[in-house]
Write a structure and sequence with these properties.
Distance between the termini: 25 Å
CATH class: Mainly Alpha
Helix content: over 70%
Number of strands: 0
Radius of gyration: 17 Å
CATH architecture: Orthogonal Bundle
Number of helices: 7
Order of helices and strands: HHHHHHH
Number of domains: 1
Length: 188
């Protein structure tokens, strides 16, 4: 049986993942925020990686089924995005002891930038859209800048909602506060 804290964290991750399935502006979902959130709040590092990546996979499968009955309909070389999200979970580990507004905001921007760099490097490396030269790589990044605007906006918005929302819940409900053993695990 899930303890109230773990159950609330899982529910927040699942609800955040639903942003991919609901109508939304292009590239404005909670996926980066939920990867960061998982890394910051789950004491069990395996769960911190497994849950965000599992909900990403499930939402990819649902989107693939909706669009064309093909799980890969959401995009080729999805493994690059999974690597980026796993790296973002790792970035979330750096926030385990400090969820302050400035630290959270700066880390959200870094996570968004990390996803931008890794995903577009994957586009350049695996797609035939750009020449496999330094100029082609620069062209790929420049072409992606307009898309990053929505990504960054969504990442900041959803990070604020997840981190701020959970911290408000922790203040209101004592059962959601991390027990001493979990606080020690988060400190590792």
């Amino acid at each position: 049986m899930l303890n109230p804290r773990l159950g609330t964290l899982v529910a927040m991750i699942v609800m955040a993942a639903a942003t991919r399935l609901l109508p939304h502006p292009p590239n404005m979902t909670a996926m980066t925020a939920l990867a960061l959130f998982g890394g910051a709040f789950f004491a069990d590092k395996r769960l911190a990686f497994a849950l965000p990546l599992a909900v990403l996979l499930i939402s990819d499968l649902v989107l693939g089924l909706i669009w064309s009955w093909s799980p890969m309909a959401v995009g080729p070389h999805m493994e690059v995005q999974y690597v980026a999200f796993a790296m973002i979970v790792g970035l979330g580990f750096t926030m385990r002891q400090n969820h302050g507004v400035v630290r959270t905001g700066v880390t959200a921007v870094l996570a968004s930038l990390l996803f931008f760099v890794v995903s577009n490097l994957g586009t350049w490396a695996f797609e035939s859209l750009y020449p496999k030269t330094f100029g082609g790589l620069v062209e790929c990044y420049v072409a992606a800048i307009p898309f990053w605007r929505n990504t960054l906006t969504g990442d900041l918005l959803y990070t604020a909602v997840l981190f701020g929302g959970f911290q408000l819940l922790e203040r209101k409900f004592e059962t959601l506060r991390a027990p001493e053993a979990e606080r020690l695990a988060l400190a590792e």
